Amino acid sequence: MVRAMVAALGILALAACAPLAPQPDASDRAAAELGVLSLGIAQPGRFEAVTVRLDLPASAAGSVLSFPENWGPEENLSQLRRDTAFRGLERLPGEGEAYRVAPGGGWIAYTVAQDYDGEPDWQTHRLPGMRVRTAQSHAFLLGQTVLPTWSQGGVPLTLDLQSLPQRAAFSFAPADCATGCALDDLANSVLALGDFAFDTRQAGDTTVRSAIRGSFAMDADAMSGVLAGMLDQGAQRFDDAPFASYLFAVNPIPAPPQGSAVVGTGLHRSFLLLASENADAERLRHTIAHEIVHEWITRRMGPTDEASDAQRMWFTEGATEYFAWKLQLAAGLIDTQDFLAGMSDLASEYLASPVRELPAGELAERIFESEEAQRLPYQRGALLAWHWDMLARERGSSLDAVIADLIDGNTGQELTDARIQAAMARRIGGHFDSDLVRYVVRGQALDPMALTLPGCVVAMPERSGTVRFAIEEGSSRDTCRAELLGPA
Fold first, then answer.
1. Is 373:366 a contact under the CB 8 Å cutoff?
2. Residue 414 is part of which domain span?
3. pLDDT 10s digits, 71-86
4. Torsional sign, CA 60, 61, 66, 67
5. Model pTM score
6. Bridge partners for 91 per DSSP
7. 20-73 pLDDT, tens per residue?
8. Buried-most residue among 27, 130, 138, 154 (CB within 10 A)?
9. DSSP run (H or E) holding 283
């Protein structure tokens, strides 16, 4: 019995001395739970086809990937994908294209290429430039048109761009996703390859990358300068510098049958500008400025209810339009006279608008009926934002502080009308609620002559029935600029 015990103890001692199998550390375990999104080109030096691959770990088992058939103005997106191969995924029955990840994980890979001949045009496309463009010398695509979404479950993804050529720009760098990025964020992106003009510069603490193709009234350096100035001023005035890096992509589109076209779209950590090469410099500059302000209003404030977005456009577009002018002035992109001319144009357009007295509810129903209806929230909202900024200044605050408050209050929950209005009333005072009801909710005509203006600005009626804002006699441009901007 004693011998048996001694033997047993000896065995236990030997076992205790034996080396243990290596155990994964926390970073290894985390990496094992991340998927990988890989992007590349099918043929070196050519851009007729872009390759996409998703490697999914065992932790993704049971999750479902779905490929949307429509996005924005684009339909039949499945026509852009070919040569699909997968392993460890189950193709689900039904009309849409969806895959369930099996136990143990798996992968799916496919090639993306344009499904039309030549350059995009207005006859074939609702908005040229939104659909995948792949050619021998360049490629340009939006992630939403080619990447799937998690319709059930899902895991974060790292990023592998090693198979892309040197002349490439994507909304994300691999380091951005070292600990995993959401697939929805990765899809909200742009990829530019080939004969673009690529550049990198600093805007405060933000590294601004640009990929610009085409010949415009503003050159690539000037466009990048607008973007950098707006990002820098937005970070200062809203006390929020969220971007370590930011991508600005510009692609030319054909001119419409009449006039020119400039369309801006905000993406994750990036901004896309589609423009016809006959667009004037002022329109290009202001579109870039307006769309960059959307990074803060309302993207940094929290998600909104898309179904009712039209009802709060007095804020989402009106305040954005006002700050597009104000931040351009702060960045030195325009001068005091340019700012006042821009606000004068908004007032004159508003006074001439046949729909200027539409109440908010009716405007929301008719917002896409005409250009006049679409422009009303910009005009009415920007004039009120200027007025409210001055009222807040009288109380020792500013509209800049309202934006900062809403960003600081973002907990990931929906940005509601109640939260917007409470933040406005807190800084502006009682006039805000009555103004909102009178001019927005009920649609009563707003008199630009009665706005609360800086002391250096006077509103002058024109014989045509319009209004012009001008510097008060005796005030200098520099002094008025400082008064328009207020403290940063």
1. yes
2. 305-485
3. 988 999 999 999 999 9
4. positive
5. 0.83
6. 99
7. 444 444 444 445 789 999 999 999 999 999 999 999 999 999 999 999 999 988
8. 130
9. helix 281-293
